[in-house]
Amino acid sequence: xxxxxxxxxxxxxxxxxxxxxxxxRKILSTIAIERYPDSEATExxxxxxxxxxxxPGNILAGSGAxxxxxxxxxxxxxxxxxxxxxxxxxxxxxxxxxxAGAEVVSQWGGEEEHFAPRMEETLDLIRQLRPRAxxxxxxxNPTGHYLTRQDIEMVVDACGDGLLILDEVYITFVDxxxxxxxxxxxxxxxIVRSMTKDYTLAGLRLGYAVAxxxxxxxxRRVCPPWNVNVAAQKAGVAAMEDVDYLESCQREITTAKRxxxxxxxxxxxxxxxxxxxxxxxxxxxxxxxxxxxxxxxxLVRDCTSFGLPQYIRLAARTMPECQKLIATIxxxxxxxxxxxxxxxxxxxx
Length: 349
Prior knowledge:
seven-stranded mixed sheet; Aspartate Aminotransferase, domain 2
């Protein structure tokens, strides 16, 4: 299309839209890249442990959440194992299962219930299937649905000897979220989080797993040495030193998300309620809608790969950027540039 990457206004990624904490760029200029990084990510793990109220032995740093998800599959899954995945959700769970030779069992939430899992059916399925593991993304990607502590505790109990992988990559963006950190005392729960999303460190790749020491030890046995580079380790430590950063960003993100949802509802779109910083918008043909906006230099997430070809996902960005998105969509509708797509997507179309 003749558009350079720098010209794209990207609503397709669900990371924090604000620049990283100021201390991150400062620390990057001091890094000794000629030396190998600490293979244990000791300083980073200690800082995370202090922040989360757990022991350093309960933490394993990873090169993003995806690496940790694959390490879990390598450590715990064998060919023929069954793994339950609540759909629609992040596609890398299924990829990790296939790499390990595990068999995936999918349970889909219904559109009429905003794709939320039917918990009684989920619990019954776990008890019948006795899967090696259950993947739950909380809040879920791409729907933004957030399960209660009671829901997760019931899943843990139903799993028995099976493993619950609780993906909390977007937990920071949920207002009134509950803490799962006390669950690490159990030996069948592993929590996956990402500093990439929280602190805008996508280019450095940084995530971590929190679990019982026995689980962390099992993951270390399949973890490659030096898996987290020195820049990511130092940036993670520097980011956590800015104690007000996340709260400040979240306030602005919440305001921007509310603006987007109100304006899209006014225009006539059907929206899926979300507890996260992103939400689903029904447009009937996601591929066409994405292409139409891209011609104006705006990128949104086509959710066809999630099994939702009628939906796009939008993540809140800064208020001026959100205002530009709404103005562009409104202008395109007024000019008839995407009339068919919009008419199909509106509530009373």
